[in-house]
Design goal:
With 501 residues, the chain is an alpha/beta fold. 43% of the residues lie in helices and 14% in strands. It contains 18 helices and 16 strands. The chain has helices at residues 3-12, 35-39, 47-60, 87-97, 101-104, 111-121, 139-153, 168-179, 198-206, 226-236, 260-272, 297-303, 341-352, 359-369, 377-402, 427-436, 440-452, 479-500, and strands at residues 14-16, 22-24, 71-72, 162-165, 187-194, 210-215, 240-248, 276-280, 313-318, 332-337, 408-409, 418-419, 422-423, 454-455, 457-458, 469-474. It has a seven-stranded mixed sheet, sandwiched between helices. Strands 11, 12, 13, 15 and 16 form a five-stranded antiparallel sheet that branches. Strands 1-2 form a two-stranded antiparallel sheet. The longest helix is centred in the C-terminal third of the chain and has 26 residues, at 377-402.
């Protein structure tokens, strides 16, 4: 027996196998693996989405089903739903990845794209997109982010407060890691909005942190109620040490755009209890109300005056949403407000262990925060306006049509890319689901998929007030598919109510 195999056998132990040979016992089994990983759940890619993929395979194989296509409205993946990329983004990415095109085929690209790619590459090591970047990001990109934030908020931002990541999710996880403590008798707690984007509950499970649920006010367009925040905070202190409050604005899955007064109340609450604010603002370009504008937590914090200069805030943005929808390029950034220099140094040390984020994602960030101003400007404006106007049109369509279905109620979609309608389900359906050990809205969404090919996510995967039932759908499918979706949903809902009444 080779020495390496003998050592492995000695470590793992052995048991008799076929023909009398010893069989190695795996070092890692489902029973001894990290329990935090087993605890993690991620609803937007859960069992119903897996079932949708199986149905798509069945359709391709020629199997007859009650529908001709699966309509995926489960995840905010714009390009998968047919959205076209912004030309300037792809030109800059192409030139940065293949800079020889600048000389060999200059007429294929706008001067704006050539200039931007050249500027970014001038700050890359070796002038190459294939080289590791600084861990916090390419200097040209973090400079563009700084300029964008300063212009957006009317308050100066600092380049040393910016770092990029492989999507906003990576930035969020790194900030959460900084807050963790390892006292098993006093776990760190994160205040998470309910309903929430499952990244946060998954991170709490992965990091063995305590999830502090605070419920958003559905009766008031999903705003935050300070009394509810105080309740959640006070009750959580029996189980953990609250460290941070996370806010998603505009909301996922709820689609709200918080008013400035509400943001100020949240900041004052966090300041009162010495909580880090984590502001997930990746949908800041997706605002649909005629009189609505996005206001960042950073802007409101600065407007409150010197009294709040010690309130720490981490703000996040991404190229995956907004008008770009470049989910696969994986580009996001974080701005740290009121963080001491030594703490920032520790955070940047943490992210340096991953070396750097995707360079292509960083190019996309630059294109998002610094639009072209020369020969590419007109097309850029046309394309971004077309995307945002279409999303607004679809948000109105979805809201109006959902509210015409008896037993379904949906708040106005003020922002983001989702609707989170409330379902009134028959008592028999609720009882059957409870007996089966599944959530009632899971039963609803599962039967909806099998009957119509419509794939949405049960509200229970995002959290909700006990006794209420919802589902989350995106507004990203093309308008003609959304029309089909809403027709089928109305028909299915009527049959579901009849079946279980």
């Amino acid at each position: 027996m080779p020495v390496s195999v003998a050592r492995a056998t000695a470590r793992a132990g052995s048991s008799p196998g076929r023909n009398g040979h010893s069989a190695l016992i795996p070092l890692l089994t489902i029973s001894n693996m990290n329990p935090c990983v087993k605890e993690m759940q991620y609803a937007v890619r859960g069992p119903i989405v897996i079932r949708a993929a199986e149905l798509e395979k069945d359709l391709k194989s020629g199997k007859k089903l009650p529908f001709k296509q699966v309509i995926r409205a489960n995840i905010g993946d714009a390009h998968a739903m047919g959205q076209k990329p912004i030309t300037f983004v792809r030109e800059v990415a192409s030139l940065a990845m293949a800079p020889y095109l600048i000389k060999s085929s200059p007429n294929l690209f706008s001067k704006d794209a050539i200039d931007r790619a050249t500027e970014i590459l001038s700050t890359a090591h070796g002038g190459s997109a294939g080289a590791y970047t600084d861990s916090v990001g390419l200097p040209a990109v973090t400079k563009h982010i700084t300029e964008y934030i300063s212009q957006r908020d009317g308050y100066p931002a600092k380049q040393e407060d910016i770092f990029v990541g492989t999507g906003a999710s990576a930035c969020i996880k790194n900030v959460m890691k900084m807050v963790l403590t390892h006292d098993p008798n006093n776990k760190p707690g994160f205040m998470i909005p309910i309903p929430q984007y499952p990244l946060y509950s998954a991170c709490c499970a992965e990091f063995d942190a305590h999830l502090i649920s605070y419920f958003m006010d559905e009766s008031n367009n999903w705003t935050l109620n300070v009394e509810e925040l105080e309740r959640a905070y006070t009750e959580s202190k029996k189980h953990c040490s609250p460290k941070a409050i996370c806010i998603i604005n505009p909301g996922n899955p709820t689609g709200q755009n918080l008013p400035v007064e509400n943001i100020a109340e949240i900041i004052k609450f966090a300041h009162r209890h010495s909580l880090l604010i984590m502001a997930d603002e990746v949908y800041q370009s997706n605002i649909y109300g005629d009189n609505d504008n996005f206001t960042s937590f950073k802007k409101v914090l600065r407007s409150l005056g010197n009294e709040y200069d010690d309130q720490q805030l981490a703000s996040f943005h991404s190229v995956s949403k907004g008008f770009m929808g470049e989910c696969g390029l994986r580009g996001g950034y974080c701005e740290l407000t009121n963080f001491p220099a030594d703490v920032k140094a520790m955070l940047y040390k943490l992210i340096s262990a991953s070396l750097c984020s995707s360079t292509v994602g960083q190019f996309a960030i630059s294109c998002m925060v610094k639009p072209p101003t020369g020969d590419a400007a007109e097309l850029y404006q046309q394309e971004t306006s077309a995307v945002l106007n279409s999303l607004k049109e679809r948000s109105i369509l979805v809201h109006n049509r959902l509210n015409k279905i008896p037993g379904i109620e949906c708040n106005p979609l003020q922002g983001a890319m989702y609707a989170f309608p409330r379902l009134e389900l028959p008592a028999r359906a609720v009882a059957l689901a409870t007996e089966t050990g599944i959530a009632p809205d899971f039963l609803y969404c599962s039967e909806l998929l099998d009957a119509t090919g419509i794939c949405v996510v049960p509200g229970s995967g995002f959290g909700q007030i006990p006794g209420t039932h919802h589902f989350r759908m995106t507004i990203l499918p093309p308008k003609d598919q959304l029309e089909v979706f809403l027709d089928k949903l109305a028909e299915f809902h009527a049959s579901f109510i009849k079946k279980y009444s």
